[in-house]
Amino acid sequence: MRNTTLQYVRKPDWLLLLASMVWVFSCQTAEPVATIAPDPTTIISPTLVSAQALGNDQAEFVVKAGFEFDPSSWRLNLLDANKRSMALNAGTVGRLDLFTLMPYRITGLISGQTYRLRFVTRNAGGDSVHVERDYVHRPDGPRWTRLAHAPVAGGDFAGSAMSTDNVPGSDASQLSIWQLKSDNSYQALSYSVGSNSWYAYKLTTSSTLGTHGIVRFSLQAVKGVVYSMSGLGFVTNESLPGQRQYLKNMVTPDFAGPDGEVRWFTTLTKAYQLVEGGHSQVWVRMGTWDQYRTADLPEPTGTLATFRIGTTGYVVNQRSGQAAHLWAFDTEREQWSRKADFPGAIRSRGIGFQADEKGFFGLGITPNEETLRDVWQYNPATDKWQYVTDYPGAGSTYLVVSQIPGHTFLGWGYEQQPTAAGGIRLVGCTDFWEFKP
């Protein structure tokens, strides 16, 4: 395992957890505050942030950089199957509040052909950066729509998103992501679907200090009343590197499951919570705040990803030395059944989500720390998996996934960049995408 360093440091000593909020459909409101100010000590190094098909033979690649850098500060090459360099046409620099975006376009690509992107630059600290990325031209695959970059330049890029697709009638015009800032406080970012823009919001909680990996979900208690529950996660201590203290608080009663990172799926009135790391317990949080233990997963947990299709929850369970198992949980009978194994590469920090009555799983990193951006689709009607697309964005780990009625969003997270010393540099990502199968 290579050493890992952070370009945008995820600060230690996270303190309190955030209290629960309650809202009713008829009175859910929020008030924008001032534009987010960048961390004055942060310099945004050049990074390759997206690779996206634009048409049958066209594609666009985008470089993001701070204002201190110009196009002469990096080199971007595209190689064909014979390793011949292809001409890229630089577009107009887009200047945003915190950074610039430089697009490069190309025509003459062949559908299904694999190309190689090579990006060479130096980061803000002067270290060399050499990133290579495969790009498979697939103009007829699932549609990715590039959205506005999040206006953040520091802090934790593994934001805590609220998904409300389990609650019919919930707001489909905006979504909420909380970000842990460099000073240990939280800011709430709201993305407006209609205007494709971000806003900063004040958190109406008892504290603005929080933890890593906060769990957030919405559950209906009675018709028309939904509780937005937030909590759990973990804190770290810089004097004890690699060790975490997992928190139990969310609502009363505290989470009764074992320590570890929690993964979950939700129905309208219940959240089913599992913990990674060898456990099998499944705890159910109800919209009334009560909890109970339901049928255990039939095997110990490894690395998990979850999604829900209809009234069935699905868990991808990856344990060392075995295929990645897919388990289905009938939430009406509260029974588990084994489904088709995931056929792709074993990975950690993969993500799961659902769209159009299908399940999706992908991204992450391999045990050898190789970046993965493949996305696979699971069809419950046929109990089969198939590869469908690559994620066009920069990140591969700790991505934010947020779902509101009719929309699925992915973005943020971290990109893994190799360093000259043989280690890994984690670079925070701000690109954001909507996925439609």
Automatic annotation (TrEMBL):
<dbReference type="InterPro" id="IPR015915">
    <property type="entry name" value="Kelch-typ_b-propeller"/>
</dbReference>
<protein>
    <recommendedName>
        <fullName>Galactose oxidase</fullName>
    </recommendedName>
</protein>
<keyword id="KW-0732">Signal</keyword>
<feature type="signal peptide">
    <location>
        <begin position="1"/>
        <end position="29"/>
    </location>
</feature>
